[in-house]
Amino acid sequence: MSDNPNKETENPPLDHEDWQDAFEPYAGQTDAALMLGFNFKVLLSYLTVEPIAIELAVEGIERAIDALYPHTQFHQMCHEMFLKVVGGELTLEEEETLKKMGLKF
Predict the structure, then answer these.
(1) Residue 37 placed within a domain
(2) Is 17 contained in some domain?
(3) Mapping DSSP to helix (H, G, I), strand (E, B) and coil, where does residue 21 land?
(4) What's the domain range around 78?
(5) Helix axes 54-68, 30-48, angle to 10 degrees
(6) How distant, in Å, are the alpha carbons of 7, 50, 76, 84 from that of 91?
(7) Residue % of the chain over a pLDDT of 70
(8) How far apart are CA 67 and CA 48, in angstroms?
């Protein structure tokens, strides 16, 4: 049993299947996939080097989320709603409204 209670979840986030689904659009896009791999390694280094550079990692992830936004169905709505969806901050009312609009998340 692990000493870290956060690692003991029934459905851990970011499991292998989640990543496979997320990276499916990279099939045949070898240059883009390689660049993404480099970016992940940079983020990982920010979190594992001494001294750790968590602020740089957070800023990099925030820039990645902003860069991802135009590629989503939310670009036709508003950036704030996109951030609420990916941040898990939707109210039940907002979630129902988005579902009625045909958005899937």
Answers:
(1) no
(2) no
(3) helix
(4) 52-105
(5) 150
(6) 27, 39, 20, 9
(7) 89
(8) 24
Are 79 and 85 spatial neighbours (Cβ–Cβ below 8 Å)?
no
- In this predicted structure, the answer to whether residue 105 has a pLDDT above a threshold of 90 is no
Q: What does DSSP assign to residue 14?
A: T
Task: Note whether residue 99 is domain-resident.
Answer: yes
- Report pTM: 0.65
Question: What confidence tens digit (pLDDT) does each residue in 59-86 have?
Answer: 999 999 999 988 888 777 788 888 898 8
Q: How far apart are CA 24 and CA 45, in angstroms?
A: 25
Q: What are phi and psi of 14, to 5 degrees?
A: 60, 40
74: number of Cβ within 10 Å: 21
pLDDT band at residue 8 using 50, 70 and 90 as cut-offs? low
